Amino acid sequence: AALASAASFVAGGALPLLVVALTSAENRLPALTGATIAMLVSLGVIGAHAGGVRPYRPTVRILIWGLVSLG
Prior knowledge:
Blueprint: H1 2-22, H2 28-51, H3 56-70
């Protein structure tokens, strides 16, 4: 379980670090916001697929609560 948790933290942190490293200071916040929203949507779709349900409701739920937790 510890290895799975560590792998998920590394995977979850890789995209934001990549976005910050590849964007200029002026574009960093919009790029990071867009990447975060894209990843939340992706995780919602993946979770719905893994659970065998239609992706709309789980994706919206993850997106909304993910954005609330970031705010």
